[in-house]
Model the fold of this input.
Amino acid sequence: MSIFTKIINHEIPANRVYEDDYTLAFHDVDPQAPIHILVIPKKEVAHLQDLDGETMTHLLFAVQQVAKKLKLDERGYRVVINNGADAGQEVPHVHLHLLGGTKLGHIHHQDRTHTAS
Ligand code: DGP
Done:
């Protein structure tokens, strides 16, 4: 069972901000921005490629609701998914990082080590 499933089941505490039948959102324990929320599916799926489209829709809907609740719409925010080893995914349970509350640095062209040919 993933650590995030334990949070869903209230076996581990978390600072929750939004929940519906399909998703849960809570504050990241190690925030990388003034606002750093994790949005996760309630079904435990490790990687994006194994997630069904309906749940993906619910995840983005949850992002919308969280952003509205935290009044991020006007200033904007970033959504990031670290998927798999190259992306540095640490928790094997799909999660969207919602980052905001400050002017975020650009991530374009962050890694030029391997350019597409
Ligand atoms: P990633 O590298 O994309 O797999 O990010 C995993 C994130 O999960 C990382 O930002 C820290 C966060 N995290 C890990 N364990 C816990 C936990 O027990 N509670 C909370 N709130 N966040 C956690």
